[in-house]
Design a protein that fits this description.
Blueprint (H helix, E strand, L loop, with lengths): L19 H5 L2 H4 L4 H4 L1 H15 L5 E6 L5 E5 L15 H7 L22 H7 L1 E10 L2 E8 L2 E2 L4 E2 L12 E8 L11 H14 L4 E6 L4 E5 L5 H8 L10 E7 L2 E9 L6 E6 L2 E2 L5 H20 L11 H5 L2 E8 L18 H21 L1 H33 L21 E6 L1 H10 L5 E6 L11 H6 L1 H10 L16 E5 L4 H17 L1 H5 L3 E4 L4 E5 L2 E5 L2 H10 L5 E5 L8 H9 L6 E3 L5 H12 L3 H11 L8
Parallel strand pairs: 1-8, 12-14, 15-16, 15-17, 17-18
Antiparallel strand pairs: 1-2, 2-7, 3-4, 3-7, 4-5, 4-6, 8-9, 10-11, 11-14, 12-13, 18-22, 19-20, 19-21
Length: about 625
């Protein structure tokens, strides 16, 4: 019997006015409401200030993280217009309260801009508890205040500005994120600092000042060398083959800049930007770079007789030990980003522009620097030989195994659920703890894979050696998505991969080894938020006729302080195996009670630096790192 439509009439259709859509669906505009989405708010404002500098107005930008949790950005640009728009409100109010309102939709105000949709400032305003805006123009300071995106009065001249009088004109925006919109409103100063540093590298000659009021510090970022300096910075702890190679060319109005340098590692670090915006999912400019690099190196190798006519090095070979920055600047109106967060460039024509610029630039460099060119070719040829030597082993383990239904490892206690988004895989240190976890788990959606001993350090290991290591082979097969050039993320069998180790030094080391494996060889799992670290309790305390599980020493001290003079007993858990199955479930595996820490990479360059330092072959950098950070080290991984 057909259902009636009486419950769906015209009055059921909602029309969201002003900034309501942003507060209703914030993820559509900033990607997420976690820490990553939170940090999108200042980037929208900073990018607007950068756009003014790109347009030729101002060379300094100030960013301040305030003690009250707010953040401010000040520039010395022209200042957002404060005169009345034809819509009836000031230009400032229009920009901060209307979606798709801005000066970037034609080429009159901005030819090159990191903004695109005209929603940046308004989205930051909509998701802020309050926002204060000041504009310095015509020897006056105009101000306006907002609460959750709503103006609290008209634009008016102020005699007591918040902004410093450091330029004749400019815009000052200070805002405090709305705690009801985000899972956290705590700024990560290092994340902000890294983003500013990258901006400074990309915009040679632009001066940034970053202040942390809590610590009373101010750092300045200014680089004349541009992205060449950035590549050198990324490779500062690695043995490099040549000096950084720089290529620049303008093709059809699009400026292409490339800086690259090879080192002796096995991993690739590639960052891509469009109009200074970090496109962390790459796009057509990255595709163009890869294609041009592969063709250029193969052409030169054949020319000097380094390879036979039928042989060719692949794109995978090119990536080994490559550090590269690709940056394109193009007319704002032509940019096709995948979303408002600008994670991926979709312009098909840019691929051709980058190919043309990079191929021509590298061809010229190789001709003028044959010694450097031969070192690069030799490095890539070595990678190609290693790939060919490992192919048979990889196909045996992966193509006939994880990707074609090979029997799952016998030590894996799989779950009943078949939907990967609902499944969890616990990687448990030791057979004893693995046995407890198997008994205590919810077998409907939780799978257990015990790991015996410390796994291989994969920082500098080739894939054939990795998949020849039994524990990592079992792990790869259990995950189901493969590894290396035969990986297929769609076949990942678990969307939560949870590292569960003892709360001691050995446990922390094993967790670090596993994170190295995932970061270097299965980065998809890290980048897409599938990797977690379980936090087992450190103590069980019996006091005042109650039992409590305690996860930190601070919690322990606080609990004991609540019951002065009371008798108590403390059990320190040295290992997971000391817990009964029901205790392990209740404290570490029960979704209602457990504490999981998701492994995120906010700064890929910093993560690469730490992994290379701590897990690489060079002892002096590791010793220096450890002695420098020893006093601040904890087991809170």
């Amino acid at each position: 019997m057909a259902k009636k439509n009486d419950d769906y009439q015209a009055d059921a259709i909602q029309v969201l006015e002003g900034l309501e859509p942003v507060r209703k669906r914030p993820g559509m505009y900033i990607g997420s409401t976690d820490s990553k989405g939170l940090h999108q708010l200042p980037y929208e404002i900073i990018t607007n200030s950068i756009d003014e500098a790109l347009a030729g107005f101002g060379k300094r930008i100030w960013v301040t993280v305030h003690k009250d949790g707010s953040l401010s950005v000040q520039d010395e640009g022209r200042g957002i217009p404060i005169d009345k728009h034809k819509s009836g409100v000031s230009g400032l109010e229009l920009v901060l309260t209307k979606l798709h309102a801005g000066g970037k939709f034609d080429e009159k105000a901005y030819k090159v801009s990191g903004g695109l949709h005209g929603v940046g400032g308004s989205v930051t305003n909509a998701l802020s508890e309050w926002l204060h805006a000041e504009v310095r123009r015509d020897d006056k300071v105009y101000a306006q205040d907002y609460k959750i995106g709503i103006p609290q009065g008209p634009v008016a001249v102020t005699k007591s500005p918040m902004s410093a009088n450091i330029a004749g004109t400019g815009t000052y925006i200070r805002f405090k994120p709305d705690v009801t919109m985000f899972s956290t409103v705590e700024w990560n100063y290092e994340t902000i600092e890294t983003a500013i540093r990258n901006f400074a590298y990309l915009l040679a000659g632009l001066h940034f000042f970053v202040t942390n009021e809590e610590k009373g510090t101010t750092k300045q970022f200014y680089f004349e060398g541009g992205i060449k300096s950035l590549v050198a910075h990324l490779n500062r702890d690695k043995k490099t083959l040549t000096d950084p190679i720089f290529v620049t060319k303008t093709v059809e109005g699009t400026q292409v800049e490339l800086a690259l340098q090879y080192n002796d590692s096995y991993t690739e670090v590639l960052q891509s930007f469009v109009n200074t915006v970090y496109t962390y999912d790459g796009g057509t400019h990255v595709t163009g770079l890869r294609m041009a690099l592969t063709r250029c190196v193969n052409d030169y190798a054949k020319k000097i007789g380094a390879v036979k006519g039928g042989e060719a090095m692949t794109g995978e070979d090119m990536r080994e030990g490559l550090t590269a920055i690709i940056s394109v600047k193009m007319p704002t109106q032509l940019i096709q980003f995948e979303s408002q967060t600008k994670a991926k460039l979709n312009n098909p024509e840019v691929q051709g522009y980058v190919q043309t610029a990079v191929k021509e630039g590298l061809d010229n460099y190789f001709e003028e620097n044959p010694s450097d060119a031969k070192q690069i070719v030799a490095k890539i040829l070595l990678a190609a030989k290693a790939r060919l030597a490992a192919r048979a082993a990889k196909e045996a383990v992966l193509r006939k195994g994880a990707l074609e239904g090979m029997t799952l490892p016998g030590k894996l206690a799989d779950c009943q659920e078949k939907d990967p988004s609902l499944c969890e895989l616990y990687l448990v240190e030791g057979d004893s703890a693995g046995g407890s976890a198997k008994q205590g788990r919810d077998r409907k959606f939780q799978a257990i894979l015990p790991l015996r001993g410390k796994v291989l350090n994969t920082e500098r290991a080739q894939l054939d050696k990795i998949i020849g290591f039994e524990e990592l082979k079992f792990l790869t097969i259990a995950l189901g998505m493969g590894i290396g050039d035969v990986s297929n993320p769609e076949k990942l069998r678990y969307h939560r991969v949870i590292i569960m180790t003892d709360a001691d030094v050995d446990g922390a080391h094993i967790a670090c080894l596993l994170m190295t494996f995932f970061y270097r060889h299965l980065p998809y799992i890290v980048e897409h938020g599938h990797l977690y670290v379980a936090m087992p309790p450190l103590y069980k305390i019996d006091i005042a006729k109650t039992s409590s599980y305690i996860y930190t020493d601070l919690e322990k001290d606080a609990l004991l302080a609540k019951y002065p003079g009371q008798k108590f007993s403390i059990q320190r858990y040295k290992g997971l195996g000391e817990m009964n199955p029901d205790q392990l479930w209740e404290t570490t595996m029960n979704p209602q009670n457990r504490i999981l820490k998701r492994v995120d990479v906010a700064d890929a360059a910093a993560a690469d630096h730490v992994f290379s330092t701590l897990m690489g072959n060079e002892v002096p950098p590791r010793k220096k790192f450890i002695t420098t950070h020893a006093k601040t080290a904890t087991l809170d991984i």
